[in-house]
Design goal:
Elements lengths: L4 H4 L5 H11 L6 H4 L1 E4 L5 E3 L28 E3 L2 E10 L5 H8 L4 H22 L17 E2 L8 E2 L9 H14 L15 E4 L4 H8 L22 E4 L14 E4 L6 E16 L4 E14 L5 E4 L3
Parallel strand pairs: 1-10, 7-8
Antiparallel strand pairs: 2-3, 4-11, 5-6, 7-9, 9-12, 10-11
């Protein structure tokens, strides 16, 4: 029996939108754990940091002075782009089984939402794994050995490129490099949270779990029982989108300071879903769309190694 327009109109309900939104979030998204996600309705989201003051100086009694010029950071513009996906259902869709599949919450509706989620996740992950070869606002690669202190003092540089595969010893070396290089534009040390993020592809899951466990080197049949100084110090985040299969790397690892707010994800339009009837081609049309972009605004967001 043919489906009537009244039957197909069941698809034009909030339930269909709900299914699409379920698809957008059907797997827990990782990007919001790593990036600061904000909403901004302007065409271009602009960042241009400004320094604080440097270390205080000694002052004599009844003396004037003590003024200091602030330093501008490096400008950056994030311009969200529109992404969408549409499907059409012809009026002639008359097979009862076809209609049932179309209406099913686990197929068409969720697939549209899932496609939007994957787009956002892939774009954010690419900021990290492309950071070894893509410039950030100061003109250096995101992960590089010679980031200038600020616009005025380019002769002083900092290094956020780590070395070697993820291991206990290399993580220890990374902590020293972070301590030696994580300074603000005025040369003051940046205090970080006790639990920075370690982000990695699934191939490193076992390595990460061993390094961050209470006893990092303990394995069945071995005598190693040393307490691990890294236990509880990091927030490990496994991210499939960082893998070689997704265009990234199965060996790279990243130490990220989300609280600094330098990894930005900007929505000018959150995922939304719409539907209408196209009488010209005699079809029901369903559309999901969003406007989003992401970027790094300051190299101090993270330190990373290619793992090689």
């Amino acid at each position: 029996m043919a489906n009537t327009r009244a039957q197909l109109s069941e698809l034009f309900t909030p339930i269909y939108d709900e299914f699409m939104l379920m698809g957008f979030a059907e797997e827990q998204q990782v990007a919001p754990k790593v990036f600061e996600i904000i909403d901004d309705k302007t065409k271009e989201y602009k960042t241009d940091g400004i320094s604080g003051t440097g270390e205080w100086e000694e002052a004599d009694e009844l003396s004037s002075g003590g003024y200091e010029d602030l330093v501008l950071g490096y400008a950056n513009t994030i311009e969200p782009l529109k992404y969408w996906k549409k499907i059409q259902v012809p009026f002639e869709a008359s097979d009862q089984e076809e209609y049932a599949i179309l209406k099913s919450k686990v197929t068409t509706a969720q697939q549209i939402g899932k496609g939007g989620r994957v787009k956002v996740e892939r774009k954010c992950a690419a900021i990290l794994y492309n950071g070894f070869s893509t410039a950030c606002p100061d003109g250096q690669y995101f992960f590089d050995t010679d980031h200038p202190k600020n616009r005025a003092e380019t002769g002083v540089t900092y290094d956020n490129l780590l070395s070697g595969p993820l291991s206990h010893d290399n993580l220890e070396a990374a902590e020293k490099k972070i301590s030696d290089n994580l300074y603000d534009m005025k040369g003051l040390p940046i205090l970080i949270a006790e639990n920075p993020i370690i982000a990695y592809a699934p191939a490193l899951k076992g390595t990460v779990e061993r390094i961050l466990s209470d006893r990092a080197t303990e394995r069945p049949g071995t005598p190693n029982r040393d307490i691990n100084v890294f236990a509880g110090r990091y927030n490990p985040i496994e991210w499939r989108m960082l893998s070689a299969k997704e265009g990234g790397s199965d060996t790279a690892w990243y130490i990220i300071f989300k609280e600094l707010g330098f990894l930005k994800g900007v929505y000018s339009r959150r995922p939304s879903f719409d539907n209408w009837i196209d009488k010209d081609i005699e079809a029901y049309v369903f559309k999901g769309s969003l406007m989003f972009e992401c970027d790094v605004t300051d190299w101090r967001a993270a330190f990373a190694s290619t793992g090689l």
